[in-house]
UniProtKB/TrEMBL annotation:
Chain segments carrying region Disordered: 25-44
Annotated protein name in UniProt: Uncharacterized protein
Biased amino acid composition, Basic and acidic residues: 34-44
InterPro entries named among the record's database cross-references: DUF5997 (IPR046039)
Length: 90
């Protein structure tokens, strides 16, 4: 989860392991929406694009992207994405 996109009340509160487990098992609507639409953290963006975190950094890509932004890159990959995919999967 991209923590800066979570509600302020969630970010500022202390959460027990049991509370976090409950969120995983029964996510509130804001968490379901965040998982579905993003923004997603760099590790998730790189996974979805099929490249490394370093590849995103080399490209100067944002630290977080929405699902729509990721899908747009997949649909019409820029040269940097094509090159990074080759590098990640020789």
């Amino acid at each position: 989860m991209y923590l800066p996109a979570a509600p302020e009340a969630f970010r500022e509160a202390q959460h027990s392991r049991d509370e976090l487990a409950e969120l995983q098992a029964n996510p509130p609507e804001w968490l379901s929406t965040l998982r579905r639409e993003g923004p997603h953290p760099r590790a998730e963006v790189s996974r979805r694009l099929g490249i490394t975190n370093s590849g995103l950094a080399r490209a100067g890509a944002s630290d977080a992207m929405t699902t729509a932004e990721i899908q747009a890159l997949i649909a019409d990959p820029p040269e940097w994405l094509i090159a990074e995919r080759r590098r990640a999967n020789p």
